Amino acid sequence: MSPRELVRLALGRLGTSRLRSVLTMLGVIIGVASVVALVSVGEGATSGVTSRLQGLGTNLLTVTPGATTTGFTRGAAGSATTLTLDDADAIKGLAGVAAVEPERSTQALVVAGRQNTTTSIVGTTTDYLYVRAYTMWQGSFLTDPAVDAGLRVAVLGATTADDLGLDESSIGSTISIAGLPFQVVGILQPKGSTGPVSQDDQVIVPITVIDHHFLSGDSVRSIGVSVASADQVDQVTAEIDSTLRTRHGLSASATADFTISDQAQLIATVGSVTGLLTILLAGIASISLVVGGIGIMNIMLVSVRERTREIGIRKAVGARGRDILAQFLVEALTLSVLGGLIGIAAGVAVSGLIGAIAGWGFVFNPVTILVAVGFSLLVGVVFGVWPARTAARLDPIAALRYE
Amino acid sequence: MTVPPTWPTGPEPVTRPPAWPAADLPPTWPGTNGLPALRPLIELAGVSRVYDLGHVQVVALQAVDLTVAQGEFVAIIGPSGSGKTTLMNIIGCLDRPTGGRYLLGGQDVEELDDDELAGFRSRAIGFVFQSYNLLPRTSALENVETPLLYQGIGRRERADRARAALEQLGLGDRLDHEPSQLSGGQQQRVAIARAIVTDPALVLADEPTGNLDSAAGAEVIDLLRRLHAGGRTIVLITHDPDVAAVAQRQIHVLDGRLHA
After folding, report:
1. I need a labelling partner for B150 at 20 to 30 A (CA). Which of A99, A139, A228, A378 fits?
2. What percentage of chain B reaches a pLDDT higher than 90?
3. How many alpha carbons lie under 13 Å from residue A315 in its C-beta half-sphere?
4. How far apart are CA A347 and CA B242, in angstroms?
5. Which chain A residue's Cα is nearest to B86?
6. Residue A50 predicted with pLDDT over 80
7. Same structural domain, A90 and A227
8. pLDDT computed for residue B8 by the predictor
9. pLDDT per residue over B6-16, tens digit each?
């Protein structure tokens, strides 16, 4: 019998017991749909997190001070005051460095009219906007003359502006930071948060102003370095390391008093975590696929029992064992593949819906579809073989007498 | 005379006087499917069938010798438990003898494995059962097509041949009816159409009137007689002497032995 004849026979048979066929397929439909939907959700979450991390800055390296050691006690990372503005200038001169922004920061009370909030005051340079990948919503960012002259101007994060009741009409108005008057020159576009720290709740002022009015010394909290291209990241990291070691008088083997962290490492780490999550989700979903397969096997075994006489008749009129085997196997396969196709449609619909709600859009991976189809075929074969063999081995005489 | 290689050398073919006047012989022999004509179609030599039930052995057939020529109409008659069903299963290639030798159309059944036997059965034998044994929820046309399906015949030819067989049996207006929509007599006629659609050498009818009222039964017997008049070999198994009377030859089975 040709495959087409077998499929026609199977479809005709499944059509005569439609409700049972649909209920049997339901297991596979749910299994495949949840595999497709959960894998897509996992991938959507991964790409969402990755794009947010990339929103922190392009090819970003962050240099932070190391820990201080007082006697035998090692302090927290970043507690050292070893990183200076001169270090930032030295890094700026390295090849492959596109922009550098040193940051000094403190906490202060900010007052605008009758509103006030306590937030972090970040002193930095004009390159901050580019290195940290912010965009302006209103007004303009710090300018080089303003930074050089130490003018009391401020750029507000979106959340801070909101807290203080400031909007586009407030550009040029005056606010007070720790009692000192500052002119508002711009408001940033919101970026969303990464983790507990909001990137939108801050006030940015020229770094020279911090030096004059808030903090003494010239140590910086961090130096953000934007590397010109992604493939130069490793080379620039090595150069920053050797430059700072030379400047701080450290040998190549000594413990560094600074840390260079790489955005790509963070993305890779997060990616591996979410990838693991995707596998976990898919694993859980495939359990329901296996359960669906057992449903098919169950119904096929019942069907073989019910149709013992039919099998006897078919054998009497010339069906060979393998004809019967093929007939029942194709029936199981038809159930699982039809269920798989419907499940894919359902899974794609569900993942589109979740993507729309969660905001990472529709993530469609053809590999998932192929794997899902392959899996449902496999389920059909694995769980269809046993009933089909049972049918094929029936003795025609006994089967014809079966009531 | 040289013996063709396909013809196994078995016991000497029995030459028996024809059981009917030579003038009644049909001029041609349809339904031989290329099997050598005018040879004995069925040859059983010392065939026995013993059921091994572990602790006890039941002898259902004991050294049976039987020869049926092509074109013959033979009734095998016997009470239940006489072994006639076992005999039918063996003649129908559904079962194998445990002893002796069975040639159907010159083919030694013992030489075929189960799959080959299935193919051979589908070409050589058409079955008519007491309980019709049609496929449920399947149209008359598709039921009659089923044996052709397993011979690998294309869809269109299958439908044409099945339709022709049903029309020949007066069921041309019932092609799309399912068995549950047909009377017993009509179902049995569909079963007969299925038996002859492969143009088999032998039609094997097992109590074909057993489930029918007398009118429908008479109709079925008449159909078998007409098939025989068309040149087909028919073996009819029954317990009813009146039904057996229509055959040219009656063979009585009792306690696993034949009594001509």
Report:
1. A378
2. 57
3. 28
4. 68
5. A397
6. no
7. yes
8. 40
9. 444 434 444 44
Q: Are residues A132 and A226 in the same domain?
A: yes
Please give the full DSSP string across B79-128, using - where no structure is assigned. Answer: -TTSSHHHHHHHHTTSS--SEEEEEETTEEGGGS-HHHHHHHHHHHEEEE
Tell me whether residue A72 is in a domain. Answer: no
| A318 Cα to chain B: minimum distance (Å) | 4
Task: Quote the pLDDT of residue B133.
Answer: 93
**Residues present in chain A in total:** 403
What is the average pLDDT score of chain B?
84
Which of B89, B123, B150 shows the shortest C-beta gap to A397?
B89
A42 domain residue, yes or no = yes
Q: Strands B233-238 and B73-77: what pairing? A: parallel
How far, in whole angstroms, is CA B40 from its chain's centroid? 14
Contacting residues for B211 by C-beta, under 8 A, at least 6 apart: B130, B131, B132, B184, B188
Chain A nearest C-alpha distance from B13 (Å): 29
pTM of the predicted protein model: 0.70
CB contact under 8 A, A317 and B129: no
Q: A313, B123: Cβ pair inside 8 Å?
A: no
Q: What's the gap between Cα A360 and its chain centre? A: 9
Token digits of residue B20 = 């009917």
**Is residue A295 classed exposed, middle or buried when 0-12, 13-18 and 19+ CB atoms within 10 A define those classes?**
buried
Contact by Cβ (8 Å): A241, A223: no
Work out the percent of chain A whose per-residue pLDDT is above 90.
Answer: 30
pLDDT surpassing 70 at residue B178: yes
> Which residues have a Cβ under 8 Å from the Cβ of A151 and sit 6 or more positions away?
A145, A183, A206, A209
* A56-79 average pLDDT score: 70
Is A73 domain-assigned? no
On the question of pLDDT at B4 being above 80, the answer is no
Q: Are residues A193 and A335 in the same domain?
A: no
> Does one domain contain both A200 and A318?
no
The nearest alpha carbon in chain A to B194 belongs to A317
Give, in order, the Cα–Cα distances in Å from B259 to each of B42, B64, B251, B252.
17, 10, 6, 5
Domain stop point among A235, A256, A277: A256
What is the domain range of residue A210? 81-256
Last residue of one domain, picked from the residues A222, A256, A290: A256
Q: What is the mean pLDDT of chain A?
A: 86
pLDDT exceeds 80 at position A79? no
The per-residue pLDDT for B22 is 39
> What does DSSP assign to residue A262?
E
Whether residues A316 and A341 share a domain: the answer is yes
Give the span between the Cα atoms of A47 and B134, in whole angstroms.
Answer: 60
Are A371 and A51 contacting, i.e. CB atoms less than 8 angstroms apart? no
**A362 located within any domain:** yes
Structure tokens at B66: 């039987």
Contact B121 A318 (CB under 8 A): yes
Higher pLDDT, A3 or B172: B172
Whether ipTM > 0.90 holds is: no
CA gap A364, A347 in Å, rounded: 10
Which domains does chain B possess?
A: 30-259 (3.40.50.300)
How many Cα neighbours within 13 Å face the side chain of A262? Answer: 16
Average pLDDT (B23-40) is 48
- How close, in Å, is residue B177 to chain A by CA atoms? 15
Q: What percent of chain B is predicted at pLDDT more than 70?
A: 85
Domains identified in chain A, total number: 2
Structure tokens at A127: 């390159």
3-class SS shares of chain A: helix, strand, coil, % to 5: 55, 20, 25
